[in-house]
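Bench log, entry 3. Co-assembly request; chain sequences pasted below exactly as received.
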Amino acid sequence: MKRLEKLVSIKDLPEAPVSNVPSLNQKTGTWRVFRPIVDKEKCIKCSICWRCCPDISIEIDNEGFPIINYDYCKGCGICAHECPKTAISMDREGK
Amino acid sequence: MKRAGIPTEEFIYSGHTACPGCGALLVARYLLKVLGKNTIMNIPACCFAAIPGTFPDTCLGIPLLYNAFETTAATASGVEAALKIKGKKEKINVVGFAGDGGTADIGIQALSGAIERGHEIIYVCYDNEAYMNTGMQTSSLTPKGATTTTNPLGKKGGWRTRNKKNMMDIVAAHDIPYAATVNPSYPMDFVKKIEKAKNTKGTSYIHAYSVCPTGWRYQPELGLELGRLATETGLFPLYEFENGRYIINYKKKTKEVLEYYKLQGRFRHLSEDFIKEVQEYIDKEWQKLLVKEECSNR
Amino acid sequence: MVKKIMTGNIAAAWGARLSRAEVIAAYPITPQTIIVEKLAQFVSDGELKAEYLHVESEHSAMAACIAASQTGARTFTATSSQGLVLMHELLHWASGARAPIVMANVNRALAPPWSVWVEHTDMMSQRDTGWIQFYAESNQEVLDTTIMCYKLCEDKDIQLPAMIGLDAFYLSHTSEIVDIPDQEKVDKFLPKFEPAYPLDVENPLSIGSLSMPHQWYPEFRYKIQEAMERVIPKLNKIEEEFYKEFGRKYTGPLELYNTEDAEVVLIISGAATGTVKETVDILRKKGIKVGVIRLRMFRPFPSDYLVKALSKISFIGVIDRSFSFGHEGAIYSEIKASLYGLNAPLIKNFIVGMGGRDITTDTITKIYENCFSCLKNNKIDIPVEWIDIKV
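Structure output for the full assembly:
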């Protein structure tokens, strides 16, 4: 089935409500109150932050460091709390 | 490929609408990482009916069939039967993924039927201990002492006075081939158990601890810490029921219920005496579990 | 082609077998049991290659059928009365999901008082679920309609579920001669089921998503109605094709019997039509101009067909074997609405045969007499009259 993008009229719809557009177009980062910041000096590249992110918004770069995708991160703070080296701080947005 | 003990591949897209710090999301994420691409999910009315987004969006990279509240196990049975007759069941995992209300309350009949029929499905109950999607109403898996919107705190008490239904015992009574409790705070244990479920001939039941910062009223960053406390207090023991035998996977019951209760707003009103009562109950249940393990392995 | 003596229940099972239903999920209920027993036997004997699910309720039966259909299997179930109303939630789901499930429903009354005998309230109360509804008159029609329903429901222009009503005991347990079509011919007539949006790991879809008020909900509902509007034209074509293949003629949503020159026409559905036809024959011999219209289909409702058929009729009696409490018979309501604004004849509602009470030629003769008396006075005595109530 073709990706159901740019739905304008009833003629663009399938017969049943079947979805196939990845939710990536929803930028849930706008929900965030606190912003996680990674301190590479402290980071030991254990990837625990990547593992425990419910928003799947932490990627690991080629060197093994976490990169936070602020488009989606909702700022729950689990990564900061779980980091064994307190390498992630949570800063209030817009400060 | 694995990283930090869990598979790297993702089957959930960002942009989903789960609350910040959602436990159910981690349960689904780990589950799908293990089961992989060849998986069909069946989801009833629950938080996860809203989390993927609205038509035509979806956060899932695998096929998902939404179903009516009480039908998860029956729906999964239908998918499995259709795959079987089409000769496709061998390589496709059929998953039912429902909340505690959809499992222990309204969906328990369909679940009982599906296990009894022996469908090769993996039924996962993500237990956030109340009807969270509708705004935190009591379910039969809401723990003793908790307040919810239908057990509201009032002048004469009002909090929940009953203990959680034991779903693991209920499914074990069906002589289910495999059942296990999982907790995202123990990801390697989680992964191992889903792998077992994947390879089980017949029905598997997975009871997943699933934190809910919104409903339990705690700071979302504490999610995984709460999970560890739940297991270390014995409130959520990690164990399996495999071919009639109980296996406890984590035996260090070192913490007190109070430590767990005091972090959550839903328990804030409770007296020390009340929590002591809960402690006694949990201790007794833990002893029972040890006996079950011992007896079933003789 | 083999002719056999069989009950309506067996005919329904043969319909599902010849259509090669692949997933059957069913729960037993009197008087449907023989349908599911027979299907289970077909599966046990290896005569039907299907997954038979012994579900723990009708609710789960329908849930499993919907899911199996969406996965890509042709599905069948059968129920009756309490079982059908237990399914109610999922009947809505099936049409919303556009799952082309075919179901036999043995029309039976609802409790209390307990009654296992014929009445149409079970199906009438599913009016708004988005299912196509047929009411059969004979066992042959039960079998043939089952096969035709798969072709109709699975058509890409339709994609809707259908239920076929067969009256408790009068059809379900009464034996008639039934022609069993050749499997090869049925296979030729009915192509393999290809779901429009299958659950496929290579092309993952999320089926049944949420839709907010400002998004697409009304549009999806509108699409169901658009499909409903295509049902009768499609049915007419399928019946023509069926006639060519199997030599049995069906006449679309209505069956007209001696209506051409009739003064009084009764409208009825289900097996009791036979009794009305017999009464018509008796009265015609006496020179009384009566006729009957059998409503084969209640959803979509064939308004245009009825308006046309009733254009020259002086008096219409509508027989409902069900009742909408607080109002009137459901078929009566629909027919009145269809005739609204037109130069409508006199029309009266008769509530007859509830809970399986026998409808005899005497009952029908009395009804025709009552119609003629109203016609003579040019006035309806009682617009909605319950017949044979012990007063």
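The domain at 2-246 of chain C is CATH 3.40.50.970 (Rossmann fold). The first strand of chain C starts at residue 2 and ends at 6.
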